[in-house]
Amino acid sequence: MIFLRKTLGIPIILITVFLSGISCQQQRTGPQNVPVGNRKSPIAISSIKHEGAYIKVVYGQPYRNGRDIFGDFEPYGEVWRTGANEATEITITEPVLMGGEVVEAGTYALFSIPNEDEWTIILNNELGQWGAFTYSEDRDYIRFNVPVINLETPVEAFSIEFSDVNLSLTTMSMSWDMVKVEIPIRFYESG
User: CA 180, CA 143: separation in Å to the nearest integer?
Assistant: First the structure.
């Protein structure tokens, strides 16, 4: 009888574990499960550190591939994920002044609304979004506008970069196609 319990117990445990795994897998749906190797756009990270403050931006890096981007592929006046794949995320470890607005430490989704002469930059509290499909203005943390800088030569890969810190100031630049925008960021001095 003990042998029968042991031999029946093991398959029952295995079946239970197997079925639990299936039910857990069925709860995960949507494009966020796309393996990194199957993405059309690679993941890029840009960061800067100043004294105790650290800013990191994680974004999908789309390529131009001969397309006209702003006003065509990415329409003017519409919310854009500011990259490809998942919505871009920015992490700030200490309060900073960004675009003239105080931004508290935290992680935010970074969206933008490109227009011909200026962009609206948006930090949103809803993390883990795929693109801007579920974006809600109600979840915006902050919005501000920055002017467009027209470039003479196209930028193939969308890129976000930080300038060197000078007198507690840096600039976060976003460039793609024939357009660049710059977001001024001021670190608060410690002490």
Answer: 18
pLDDT in tens, 134-158: 999 999 999 999 999 999 999 999 9
Structural domain boundaries of the chain? 40-187
pTM (two decimals):
0.78
Count CB atoms within 10 A of the CB of residue 125: 14
Q: What is the dihedral of CA 84, 40, 68, 70, to 10 degrees?
A: 0
| Whole-number Å distance between alpha carbons of 71 and 58 | 24
Instruction: Tell me the per-residue pLDDT of 176-187, one tens digit each, with 9 for 90 and over.
Output: 999 999 999 999
C-alpha distances in Å from residue 73, one per residue of 55, 76, 164, 178, 179: 29, 9, 32, 13, 13
| CB 46 within 8 Å of CB 80 | no
